[in-house]
Amino acid sequence: MALAANGLRLVLIDMGMMLAPAAYLAALAIGLVAVAVDQRFDVPRMTMTVAPIVIMIPGIYAFEMIVLFNRGQLLDALQASVSFGFVIGALAMGLATARFFSPR
Hints:
By secondary structure, the chain is an all-alpha fold. Helix content is 83%, strand content 0%. It has helices spanning 2-14, 19-41, 45-55, 59-71, 74-99. It is elongated, with a radius of gyration of 15 Å.
């Protein structure tokens, strides 16, 4: 599932979609598959969602933010931190949206 969701995210980015909406759609796909597997096989959703979401965390933006703040390039560092925050928020919103489809 992690491979398919990350592949979906990368294909969407290659087709020109911004990072955050692509992450949202991939996280939504992960969440919907986790809901379906939970209903069918009684596997906890947490075990199905953690690994694919962790793979999609944009570590390069976090690292870039730290390096740029250390160099004193505040505007570039803020831009990297906002990009990081948008993608993390999109991942959380994708999982939260999928949760609405859960019967519990």
